[in-house]
Structure formats: structure tokens, C-alpha cells
């Protein structure tokens, strides 16, 4: 479990000759913040300019440097450099400027960074696994720089954001998510580990690019791929038995199978499927509350039938069942999924991908199915009260479509959730305008407030950051044997309840994101309580009382700082 002493790790052991090596250790280095006394002790007096700065002063200077870069990608690189030289400073900057930094270290800029990751590559961060190391994963993990690991984020780079197969460049997404675990939940920076399982790439551009640093070959077949993944899961269990594994941006042909294969055997979850679902469900159930139309009276059309869409529908059904005491199956029947071929239904004459079967409409006739090939046609047919966008193709929620949804409900629910901004199904501003402000909106990307009929409308954002850090933190502390869906539902219910009545009154469906440390602590607490209730928490030393547990969780959260009483022990 994360040590409760993270904030007191203040004794630096380095040998006499290695004094200066503190400057090249990203976790120990504090650069200009080393006091004269510490510099003397470390024998690095001449290695730094004479000015001694506080962490706050360093943040201010680093921020001014960052602001001199116009392009977000250069700002990303600037922050990456700071992480590589002084990780404490990096997180102090992130936390001092959360809203401005998130779009740089995560979407949308992280997407651009990933697309060209090899071309920008300067130095290592994380772990690179591939078939050349097969049979040796255990050894590779033991040799790595990581002694104790709380969180692992692993991708195979096969479907990064909406950008497709980026091969080993996908490690940028694991790096970004790990940074959010630290910034969002207070995991210790040296105990979060980004990993790429480099199983090749089918992207011609990389195969032909001499600068591409991953395995320059086509993706492995399923047998080889699962051979690597099986060894990876077992090796983590052996090397870092307390780690939580988060699967990230695996393509649809693998992500569901991976979850099914490992979910009940290892401490793991998939953020794209389960995390997204938990976040959107929390906001959606708040929208339902505001709409006045209970879950079973909603008709919900979802544009897109991929991992996010299926996860969202299932989580909404589970949370609605918990909050309204209705059967999960009955809520699932209120969903109508639309993919590239139209309404997902049994009688349309094609073989559905396995993950779509649960939500496939059984009652729609073959004759009807033939006409239900577009979103417009499905909206006319279903007369939905709510519309979710998870197709990742851009502005398909037209004025006509939004207005026809508004005709079916006094407070229609429209969630354009696709990222990045250019892929959003509509802008919240348009949705407000077209419905005269009646709509309840949450978007995937951040959008500015807009003024409709003289009233300022601030759209809610269903950001994944709301739950995965808290889930990871809770699981790192409670050490459940595995991560059943109930833990995700508990997280979702917690987030749903954290929105205050005043925020709800203003149609805010989520609490403010700058309160993320506190939100994560609450979610972690509920996740621990649920693990205890289910009897799967292997850490049995924890209190079972909520307030006491919340206190313990908050105490375990690492915050960037230089301990005042650092002792440098020269051997
Ligand atoms: P995915 O590739 O698994 O799924 C995309 C789905 O959209 C597929 O079912 C596909 O058939 C369908 N689709 C694509 N083009 C279509 C078209 N022209 N007409 C109809 N259907 C079409 O991707 P995913 O992981 O499910 O993510 C989908 C989107 O959701 C992405 O844009 C992603 O950014 C977004 N997302 C948002 C959040 C969030 O807001 N918190 C979280 C995760 C994913």
C-alpha cells in the first residue's frame, strides 16, 4: 500500500563520491532549491547558480518559461524536461496550474506528443516490453528502477485516443495517465509505472520511419500477443504483488477479451471501458435527476458502439439500478446503440461483435432495421430523450437532431463525449442555443461557458480524471484480490453524490475538477469500504469507519514539497 510516510521521506542516502548524482536523480533533485548547507554537505557548491529558491519561486520561474512557448507541444516538452530533472517541481507546477496544464500533459496535446513520440524522444521514462524480452519479464522488472509499485498503466499503443495505432509511441499515454495518478490522487511519483507492451504496429508511417524507436514490424498475432500479456500479468504479480494494473487504449479486438481474461484473477481494470463508464454514469444520473424523468422513462440513443459506449451504457444501468432500485436489465433496455451500419439490432443481417450483443435490440424487425442505417433515422424511430456521442467522428449532432430530441423531453440530455474537441458531436453552445437553454449537457473535452438568453451556461465535463485516480488509490490501499464491477459502481455513486445541491441547481453535473485531490480521497474511501463489504480487501489493518478511513486516505496522499528537515547522509 502507499506508505503513509511519503510526505516525510526526507533522508537522502548517497555516498561521498555520489553527492553530485543527486542532481541527476529526478526524485531527489531540487536544483536551485538546495540550501547552501545542503550544497555544502553534498559537495555541489559550484554546481548551481548562487541564488537559492523556494519551490514556489521555482514554480513561478518555470511557469514563466513555459508561457514563452506558443505551441502546446513545446510546452509539453518543457514539462517533460522538468519531470526528468526534478519530479517534485513538475508536480508542483501541475498542481499550481491544474486547468491550464491538463490539456498539455493529457488530451489534446498528449495525442500530438504520442504521434511523434520517437521523434521527440530524449530520455527513458517507464518500461518497454516486447517479444525480444519474452521469457525474461520477471528479470527485466526486477532490474528496473522501480522497487515498489502502486500503479501500472499499460498500453499496447494499438488505439491511442482517437488517433489509431501508434505502436510503441503509445507509451506517452501511459506516462500521461501516471502523471494524473500523482496529480489527481496523490500517489507517489516513484511508485507509478508507465509501460508499453510493444507488439508491433500496422501503421505504415512508423514502419517506414527510420526515427521510429519501437519494434518495426507488423502487429503480432493473437497467440503471440496473449503469450506476452500472460507473462506480463504473472510477472507483475511476482515482482510487485501490491500493484494495481490499469489497461489503457488497447484496440477493440483485444480490450474486452483482456478484461475478461484477467479481471477475476489479477488486481486490474480498464479505464476506457470501466473508468469512462463510471464517470459518465455519475454525471448522467445527475442529469436524469435534473430532468425529472426517471431512468426507465428515458430512451437513450448512443452514437458509437465501441469500448466507451458499451462501458457507459452498462455503468449507467448499474448506477441507476443502485440509486433507483430498478433492475439492471430494465435500464439496459432503454439504450439504442448506433454504429457505422446503423442501429445495433439482431435482425440487421450481420454478425455483431461480441461486445455489442448485450445491447443489441432484439425486437426491431428486419424490415425496420433496413431503414435504420443513420443516426437521423434512429432518432426519428426511437424518439429519444437523451443522446450520447461516443463515435469519435466529429459534429454529427446537427440542429435537426438536437431539436428532435428536445421535442421528446422538457429537459433533454445531450452528452457529446468524443475527444478531442474537433471530434465532439456538437458544441455545448449549439446544444444550448438549439434548445433555448433547456438541454442538460456534459462534454468529453473542455468547452467554454456560453451565454444563452442572457444566462451564463457552463457545460459540465465528463473527464475520466474524476474517477480512475481514486479507484487506483483505493485499490492500492485496500489491496483487493481483484477489482469487481461493484468497486467501479461504488466510485461512480460517490462521484455522483459529491455534486452539491447548489451545483445541481446550476445544472453542474460534476463537482469542480480543481478539487480533484479531495474527490479522489472520497472515491478511494468508498472503494476501500466496498472491498471490505465484499470481503476482498487483503489489507485487514484498515479502519472500517468512513470518517476514520477518509482521514487515513488523505494522510497517504503525496503532495509535492521539499521536506524542510532533509538530512543528507554521506557514507
Ligand atoms: P472505439 O473506436 O472503440 O468506438 C467508436 C465507435 O463509433 C465504433 O463502434 C464505431 O463503429 C462507431 N463509429 C465510428 N464512426 C461512425 C460513424 N460514421 N457512424 C456511426 N458510428 C460510427 O472508440 P471508443 O474508445 O469507444 O471511444 C469513442 C470516443 O469516445 C472517442 O472519441 C473518445 O475520445 C471518446 N471517449 C470519451 C471519454 C470521456 O469523455 N470521458 C472517455 C473515453 C472515450
TrEMBL record:
Cofactor(s) listed: Mg(2+); Mn(2+)
Residues at which (S)-malate binds: 159, 419, 463
Any Pfam family matching the protein: malic
Ranges where the Malic enzyme NAD-binding domain occurs: 273-532
InterPro entries: Aminoacid_DH-like_N_sf, Malic_enzyme_CS, Malic_N_dom, Malic_N_dom_sf, Malic_NAD-bd, Malic_OxRdtase, NAD(P)-bd_dom_sf
One of the protein's GO biological processes: malate metabolic process
SMART domains named among the record's database cross-references: malic, Malic_M
Gene3D superfamilies, sorted: Malic enzyme, N-terminal domain, NAD(P)-binding Rossmann-like Domain
Family: Belongs to the malic enzymes family.
Identification of the protein by name: Malic enzyme
Organism, scientific name: Leptomonas pyrrhocoris
Amino acid at each position: 500500500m502507499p506508505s503513509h510516510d511519503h510526505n516525510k521521506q526526507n533522508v537522502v542516502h548517497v555516498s561521498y563520491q555520489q553527492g553530485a548524482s543527486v542532481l541527476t536523480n529526478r526524485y531527489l533533485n531540487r536544483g536551485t532549491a538546495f540550501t547552501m548547507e545542503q550544497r555544502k554537505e553534498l559537495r555541489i557548491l559550484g554546481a548551481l547558480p548562487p541564488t537559492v529558491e523556494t519551490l514556489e519561486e521555482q514554480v513561478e520561474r518555470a511557469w514563466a518559461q513555459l508561457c514563452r512557448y506558443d505551441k502546446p507541444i513545446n510546452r509539453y516538452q518543457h514539462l517533460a524536461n522538468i519531470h526528468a530533472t526534478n519530479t517534485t517541481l513538475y508536480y508542483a507546477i501541475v498542481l499550481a496550474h491544474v486547468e491550464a496544464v491538463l490539456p498539455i500533459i493529457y488530451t489534446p496535446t498528449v495525442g500530438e506528443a504520442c504521434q511523434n513520440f520517437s521523434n521527440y524522444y530524449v530520455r527513458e521514462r517507464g518500461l518497454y516490453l516486447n517479444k525480444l524480452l519474452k521469457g525474461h519479464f520477471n528479470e527485466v522488472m526486477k532490474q528496473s528502477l522501480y522497487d515498489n509499485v502502486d500503479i501500472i498503466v499499460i498500453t499496447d499503443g494499438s488505439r491511442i485516443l482517437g488517433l489509431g495505432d501508434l505502436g510503441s509511441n503509445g507509451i506517452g499515454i501511459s506516462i500521461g495517465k501516471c502523471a494524473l495518478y500523482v496529480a489527481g490522487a496523490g500517489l507517489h511519483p516513484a511508485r507509478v509505472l508507465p509501460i508499453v507492451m510493444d507488439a508491433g504496429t500496422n501503421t505504415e508511417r512508423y514502419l517506414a520511419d527510420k526515427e521510429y524507436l519501437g519494434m518495426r514490424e507488423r502487429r503480432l498475432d493473437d497467440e503471440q500477443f496473449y503469450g506476452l500479456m500472460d507473462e506480463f500479468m504473472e510477472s507483475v504479480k511476482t515482482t510487485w504483488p501490491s500493484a494495481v494494473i490499469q489497461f489503457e487504449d488497447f484496440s477493440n479486438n483485444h480490450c474486452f477479451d483482456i478484461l475478461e481474461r484477467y479481471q477475476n484473477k489479477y488486481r486490474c481494470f480498464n479505464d476506457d471501458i470501466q473508468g469512462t463508464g463510471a464517470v459518465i454514469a455519475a454525471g448522467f444520473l445527475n442529469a436524469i435527476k435534473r430532468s425529472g424523468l426517471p431512468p426507465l422513462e428515458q430512451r437513450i440513443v448512443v452514437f458509437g458502439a465501441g469500448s466507451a459506449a458499451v462501458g457507459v451504457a452498462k455503468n449507467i444501468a448499474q448506477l441507476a439500478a443502485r440509486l433507483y432500485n430498478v433492475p439492471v436489465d430494465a435500464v439496459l433496455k432503454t439504450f439504442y446503440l448506433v454504429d457505422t451500419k446503423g442501429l445495433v439490432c439482431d435482425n440487421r443481417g450481420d454478425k455483431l461483435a461480441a461486445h455489442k450483443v448485450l445491447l443489441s435490440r432484439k425486437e426491431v424487425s428486419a424490415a425496420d432495421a433496413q431503414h435504420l442505417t443513420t443516426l437521423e433515422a434512429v432518432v426519428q424511430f426511437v424518439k429519444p430523450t437523451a443522446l450520447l456521442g461516443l463515435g469519435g467522428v466529429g459534429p454529427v449532432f446537427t440542429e435537426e437532431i438536437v431539436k428532435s430530441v428536445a421535442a421528446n423531453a422538457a429537459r433533454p440530455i445531450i452528452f457529446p463525449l468524443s475527444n478531442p474537441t474537433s471530434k465532439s458531436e456538437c458544441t455545448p453552445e449549439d446544444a444550448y442555443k438549439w434548445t433555448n437553454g433547456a438541454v442538460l449537457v456534459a462534454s468529453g473535452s473542455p468547452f467554454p461557458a456560453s451565454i444563452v438568453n442572457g444566462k451564463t451556461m457552463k457545460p459540465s465535463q465528463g473527464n475520466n480524471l474524476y474517477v480512475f485516480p481514486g479507484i487506483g488509490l483505493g485499490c492500492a490501499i485496500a489491496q483487493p484480490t481483484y477489482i469487481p464491477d461493484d468497486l467501479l459502481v461504488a466510485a461512480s455513486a460517490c462521484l455522483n453524490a459529491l455534486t452539491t445541491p447548489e451545483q445541481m441547481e446550476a445544472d453542474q453535473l460534476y463537482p469542480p475538477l480543481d478539487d480533484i485531490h479531495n474527490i479522489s480521497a472520497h472515491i478511494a474511501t468508498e472503494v476501500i469500504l466496498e472491498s471490505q463489504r465484499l470481503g476482498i480487501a487483503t489489507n485487514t489493518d484498515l479502519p472500517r469507519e468512513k470518517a476514520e478511513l477518509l482521514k487515513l486516505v488523505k494522510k497517504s496522499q503525496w503532495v509535492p514539497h521539499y521536506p524542510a528537515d532533509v538530512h543528507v547522509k554521506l557514507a
